[in-house]
Amino acid sequence: PLGFGLAAIGLHLALGAGALAGLPATARVLLALVGRVLGPGATIAALLEPPAWWLVPAWGLGFGVAWNAALVLATRAVGAPFTVLIHGAVAADLLLWALALVRVAPWRAASAAVIEPRAFRLGRGAGVAVLLAMLAAGVFAGRVGVAITWYSDSPDHIATIRRMLEHGDAFPSDAFYRDAGESGVDPRKALWHPQVALVSGLAAADPIDTWRRLPALLSPLFALNVAALGWLLAGGAGAAVGAWSWFLTYGGGLASQPIRETVFSTKLADQLALATTVALLWDLARRSRRARATAVLLGLSAALVHVFAAIQFALAFGALGVGLLVRERGFGERARRLLATGLWMAAAMLPWLLWRAHGAYRPVNPIHTEPQGLLTLWDDARIVGIGILWEWMGRLWVLVPLAAWGLWRAARRNDAALYVLAVSLVVALVIFDPPVVHALQPTLGYLLMRMIWMVPLFGVLAWGLPALARRLARGPRTPATIAGAAITVALLVPMLRESARLFVRPDELQRDEAAMSPLQWRRGLSWMARHLPPDQVVLSDPGTSYAIPMATSNYVMTLVDQHSSPNDARALDRLLDARDALDPYASWERTRQVIDRYGVTVVVVNARFPDVPHFDYWAPSAEWAADARARLDRAPQAFERVYDDAGFTVYRVHRAALAALSGAVPRPFVDRYDPRTATVARRMGDDRPALQWAMLWPATAAPGDTLHGVFAWRALRPLAPGSYDVAVRFDRPLPDGMAPPAWLAKPVRKVIERVRHERYRFRADHLPVAGDYGVDLWRPDQVVRDSFQLVVPADAAPGRYVAQVRMLRQPHYPNLRLSDYFFERDYFAGVPIGGVTIAPRHGS
């Protein structure tokens, strides 16, 4: 460890001096992570003596993060920009290394003391398997990279890192908005983002490239930390199975994004929380001061990365404590040790948590604070939506309850098995207990959904698969063992097959994400970064606005949906103001009002979205962009076009000329309501517009054909701002006259669809009038025409389908009812608007 720490200091000096500037950006970024984080971490590992040499990089990541966090906080305490650490931190690293050298001298004896042969011994086969899992994780994460799309969190984080580098502030309030003030402080971002900024500055790499490349090294370290838990569960076999099961199943498998999001503070906190757990379990067994200090320091590191780790520790270690009390039938030696170490950990975290709670956590953003992601059981009894199980673990969640009894039997002798069981139970009791959800939801909001991440599915597999293999090989082969093996294989094989396919050929994943990535506008964004004066305030649609601070030093006046700070009370107002200012049919007075309110100096109209993105409040369509651009072009004296690249158009605002403009163009899709000739409105609730009439064509179509429709909506009274959605659904009866009971109709249909490889229902959702005219602006004297189109799925069964439409008002993560999972007449069922006959395609 000391040799590695000294080499890392040399790397830092070489990078800082520009001696490695000729290397590719990816290499510089990874070397900067080694020099800035892993090197100091290894030095601290030499002081704390992990029980095995291969835990040095796994735990060294946490030690290094804690060390850099301390340095960042020190710069804040003395009023210096934290960016002085890009070059200045090497002096502190040298002092740390000198302390470690003196403390563990002689060096050779100390290095040998780090390795404890009987602890965490892998064996050659298991060691090779773990190494291969690490390599696979690094290759996949490095090859595919973090998803940067207008639906992902990456542009949010990259923009924050860019602003940190520009201003030297580790807690910027102006990451996106120049006028945000204290409401711009984001409590979700702690002390990992400034460390990414330091790596970016040291590597002389753009924050976009730094963010995309760091998972190539962080993902293998995650696999290594999982292997450590696996070793505690089942020795070398458990380590190998754990590392591979994490890589292939984490967050739903390689098709999902979490495996490549190890650079996110949430995922890094997960990794460090796992390292903390292993260190804590080792402390329960070894009971030494260094083992306790290791657990405390790693726990502090996790909380410094994301404060949610403190909540996770309170629940997980509390549940482990209860498990120890039950197992030992009293307050035994291990329970006392756990309590003492937990109190030390809490004491270490408390100053940081109090400072963050006092200075950062004030959730008032209406987009965030609205209850979401909940499932109503009956009346006011609500839990976290059970769909979160499938979203995070796929069908493999079934293995967790199936393994409970076996884990309990193993937990009589194995603390790690007790931990896996206890955490799984406490998560279920929290997110699926109505009184607990009722108490926690106002404070934690949608963070309740994140608690499912605490369930260590890879731990269940690391324990369960070796145990099943031993029983099948040596007996007893009981019916329960055979059934368990069959269920496990049936659940694992589809996910493993899909993950293997994507590992070999990730081009499909890359192609789909590239179609949703703002990096396809990088030429226009680069022009803005080079040619616009710094600190401009840009007015644009939410998707483009989301990308501008990520790629330039400019500010915006709105962001996509949930990416504003939870503390920003004006987040929804910003979205709606931007919508109104760019509305092709808005009055110039309204546009001027918004531009003056936010100090807008630049407008960007972007027609380069391949499809209309499905945002919550409004979204840019090609038609909207053409109309918005035509409107601005009619006033060139107020909106000077300064750049145009295939529909990515930049205008400079001239306020004096804008002040002279007035008037508006009538909306072509809005008619005046005439009660003498209007049809009877069909209501959909007091908080949504009513349907006046609808049209649907063609009457007959085949799979692959496009269906079209037009709806006429009328707001019976002024409606509140919100996330409105139109669901158009097509249903046909089940084949052969099958008619299951209503309370079981939906799951029966899904089973039949899967067996017969055809569907009897399909649906498409869209924003009302593509978000061009917000529902909150509709007046009772208006009828608003809304259109949609839908491609008939290739596996739609032939037959007569009934079409239904419903206007919904839901938050970002919808709230559903338990009955929606069983009854065909669910939340998305609407009023019938006609039908269509789906005929077989010719030649099929």
List keywords for this structure.
844 residues; alpha+beta; five-stranded mixed β-sheet; 17 strands; globular
Structural overview:
The protein is α+β, with helices and mostly antiparallel strands and 844 residues long. It is built from 31 helices and 17 strands. Strands 4-3-5-7-6 form a five-stranded mixed sheet, with helices on both faces. A five-stranded mixed sheet has the order 10-17-15-12-13, with no helix packed on it. Helix 7 (154-167) crosses helix 8, helix 10 crosses helix 11 (265-286) and helix 11 (265-286) packs antiparallel against helix 14. The N and C termini lie far apart (66 Å).
Biggest β-sheet: strands ordered side by side in the sheet = 4-3-5-7-6
Report the strand count: 17
Write down the Rg. 29 Å
Please state the average pLDDT score: 93
**Percentage of residues in helical conformation:** 40-55%
Largest sheet: 5 strands, mixed
Figure out the total of helices: 31
- What class, by secondary structure content? alpha+beta
**Which term fits the overall shape?**
globular
Low-confidence stretches: 107-115
Q: Helices and strands in order, then pairings?
A:
Blueprint: H1 2-16, H2 25-48, H3 55-77, H4 85-104, H5 107-114, H6 124-144, H7 154-167, H8 193-203, H9 207-213, H10 215-249, H11 265-286, H12 289-305, H13 308-328, H14 333-359, H15 366-369, E1 374-378, E2 381-384, H16 387-393, H17 399-402, H18 404-411, H19 415-431, H20 434-444, H21 447-450, H22 457-474, H23 479-504, H24 507-514, H25 522-531, E3 537-539, H26 542-551, E4 555-556, H27 571-582, H28 588-598, E5 602-606, H29 622-633, E6 639-645, E7 648-653, H30 655-659, E8 670-672, E9 690-697, E10 700-701, E11 706-714, E12 724-731, H31 745-756, E13 761-766, E14 782-791, E15 799-809, E16 816-817, E17 831-838
Parallel strand pairs: 1-16, 3-4, 3-5, 10-17
Antiparallel strand pairs: 1-2, 5-7, 6-7, 8-14, 9-11, 11-14, 12-13, 12-15, 15-17
Helix pairs in contact: 1-2, 1-4, 2-3, 2-4, 2-8, 3-10, 3-12, 6-10, 7-8, 7-26, 8-9, 10-11, 10-22, 11-12, 11-13, 11-14, 12-13, 12-14, 13-14, 13-19, 18-19, 22-23, 27-28
